[in-house]
């Protein structure tokens, strides 16, 4: 595997009619380079990764909204049962493609946070943070987790989400930023003039997991990215609730937030009220004193 990869055809894996479909060659490169014995994909889509993994002696799990998995709130490690050698994602490139429409076209259901429906890039960035941390939690120590993401341009604004993704994760876990050439894109049909530069590449970001506390990373990264995410409180609460993976008593939520974010608590005497406010906005009230993601 090299730091620049390019495949002129996507291969016969998955469905080519499913827009935004990841090239099966990317999955193949990852498997043959890292030789994982277990592989999970949290963005299964039309099943490209599943088709590729069938060619190897490998334990595969594919999850998506259309089979009941919401990576912004459902715990991956709980679904897997134990950490996997490799966890992959190919997240929507913000709202470039309407995946709700794609699922309907291919007669696939799915309820949950479809981040391709977001209109605010900050919300997309926060949801991506949740997805990446969920991936990391589902990866074994010394295993690898990876995501494929592209740049995005709309209405004269340019977003390079890969730079945000790199900032999210522990700096000492990033092992590769691989450039992937893009071919046969819908935008290839257009003719551009002037100084416009078309986007003809994506980024495959690869990390190797080390032994670090889940919550401390979540809080530290949310704190570092406070200018790029609407509220660190929201991010912190959503990550804590994902870790519980089910209904939990309010006091346990207080205790967990106090444990993982003592500095934030010290700076807010009314932290319990702030936690309750965040729960009311972003979580589900099951019964008195009980909340769920």
Concise synopsis of the structure shown:
With 293 residues, this protein is of the alpha/beta class. It contains 11 helices and 12 strands. The strands form 3 sheets. The chain has a 7-stranded mixed beta sheet with strand order 1-8-9-5-4-2-3, with helices on both faces.
What is the CATH top level name of the largest domain? Alpha Beta
Q: What structural class results from the helix and strand content? A: alpha/beta
- Give the CATH H-level superfamily of the largest domain: Vaccinia Virus protein VP39
Instruction: Please state the CA-atom Rg, rounded to the nearest Å.
Output: 19 Å
CATH architecture of the largest domain: 3-Layer(aba) Sandwich
Residue stretches low in confidence (pLDDT < 50, at least 5 long) are none
State the oligomer: single chain
Strand order of the largest sheet: 1-8-9-5-4-2-3
Number of domains: 2
Tally of separate helices: 11
Outline the structure in words.
The chain is 36% helix and 20% strand. It has 293 residues and is of the alpha/beta class. The chain has 2 domains: 4-208, Rossmann fold (3-Layer(aba) Sandwich), CATH 3.40.50; 216-292, no CATH class. The strands form 3 sheets. It has a 7-stranded mixed beta sheet, with helices on both faces. It has a 3-stranded antiparallel beta sheet with strand order 10-12-11. The protein has a two-stranded antiparallel sheet with strand order 6-7. The relative contact order is 0.12. The mean pLDDT is 82.
């Amino acid at each position: 595997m090299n730091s620049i990869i390019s495949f002129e055809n996507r291969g016969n894996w998955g469905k080519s009619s499913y827009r935004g479909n990841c090239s099966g060659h990317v999955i193949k490169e990852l498997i043959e380079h890292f030789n994982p014995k277990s592989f999970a994909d949290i963005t299964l889509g039309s099943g490209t990764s599943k088709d590729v993994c069938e060619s190897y002696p490998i334990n595969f799990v594919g999850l998506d909204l259309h089979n009941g998995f919401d990576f912004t709130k459902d715990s991956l490690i709980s679904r897997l049962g134990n950490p996997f050698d490799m966890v992959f994602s190919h997240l929507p490139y913000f709202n470039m493609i309407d995946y709700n429409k794609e699922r309907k076209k291919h007669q696939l259901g799915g309820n949950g946070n479809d981040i391709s429906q977001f209109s605010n890039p900050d919300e997309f960035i926060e949801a991506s943070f949740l997805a990446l941390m969920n991936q990391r939690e589902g990866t074994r120590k010394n295993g690898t987790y990876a995501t494929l993401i592209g740049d995005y341009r709309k209405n004269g604004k340019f977003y390079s989400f890969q730079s945000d993704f790199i900032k999210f994760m522990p700096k000492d876990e990033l092992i590769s930023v691989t450039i992937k050439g893009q071919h046969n894109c819908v935008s290839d049909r257009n003719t551009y003039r002037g100084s416009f530069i078309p986007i003809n590449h994506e980024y495959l970001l690869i990390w190797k997991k080390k032994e670090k506390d889940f919550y401390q990373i979540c809080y530290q990264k949310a704190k570092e990215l406070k200018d790029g995410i609407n509220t660190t409180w929201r991010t912190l609460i959503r990550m804590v609730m994902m870790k519980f993976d089910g209904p939990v008593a309010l006091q346990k939520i207080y205790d967990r937030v106090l444990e993982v974010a003592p500095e934030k608590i010290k700076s807010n005497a009314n932290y319990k009220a702030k936690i309750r406010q965040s729960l009311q906005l972003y979580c589900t009230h099951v019964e008195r004193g009980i909340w769920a993601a």
